[in-house]
Amino acid sequence: MVVIGIGHLDRGDDAIGRLVAARLHARVPAGVTVIQEDGEAARVGARLGSAQSAILVDAALSGAAPGTVRRLDAAHDALPGDKPGMSTHGFGLASAIGLARALGSLPPRCVVYAIEARSFALGAPPSAAVLAAADEVVERVLAEIQAGA
């Protein structure tokens, strides 16, 4: 199993996936790999291709209130499409998952936790609402890992 926290540490709320991964690192059982990525589609796709099960955590912009947490089953459902300017990760997470699906390398269990962001400003710290959501996501990911064990 792999847990991938996606984001840029110097872009405000975009850091949240990586911050969740950092919090999880010492808490996951043996056999679970926690990785921090900047979201480059090919690298994320390669990480997915080598896993039997994956959980990804990333910031999102959907218009919901900052800090809103959504769980998406990427193995069975299409993710909302990437919109130009909506991702700081080049092609975006939906594109990376779509590519892995097209190549037949998407794990049979692939879950995305999307945390609604507010600001992606360069040099800004993550917002309080998004940081508060990190604790919830850490616990939810740990429960997912336990359920998959």
Note the topology.
Elements: E1 2-6, H1 16-24, E2 33-37, H2 41-49, E3 53-60, E4 69-73, H3 93-102, E5 109-116, H4 128-148
Helix pairs in contact: 1-4, 2-3
3D architecture notes:
The chain has about 150 residues and is an alpha/beta fold. Helix 1 packs across helix 4 and helix 2 crosses helix 3. The chain starts with a strand and ends with a helix. The radius of gyration is 14 Å and the shape is globular. The chain has a five-stranded mixed β-sheet with strand order 2-1-3-5-4, sandwiched between helices. About 40% of the residues are buried. The chain contains four helices and five strands; from the N terminus they run βαβαββαβα. The chain has a single domain, classed as HybD-like (Rossmann fold, 3-Layer(aba) Sandwich). Helix 1 links the parallel strand 1 and strand 2.
Structure characteristics:
alpha/beta; globular; Rossmann fold; 21% strand; 149 residues
Strand order of the largest sheet: 2-1-3-5-4
Rg from Cα: 14 Å
Q: What average pLDDT do the residues reach? A: 87
Structural class: alpha/beta
Compute the number of strand runs: 5
Described by the principal axes of the CA atoms, the overall outline is globular
The biggest beta sheet is recorded as: 5 strands, mixed
Termini gap:
9 Å
State which percent range the strand residues make up.
Answer: 15-25%
> Could you name the CATH topology?
Rossmann fold
User: Low-confidence spans: pLDDT under 50, at least 5 residues?
Assistant: 82-90
Number of helices: 4
Annotated CATH homologous superfamily: HybD-like
Write down the secondary-structure element order: EHEHEEHEH
Number of domains: 1
- Determine the fraction of residues in helical runs and give it as a percent range: 25-40%
Oligomer state of the chains in this structure: single chain
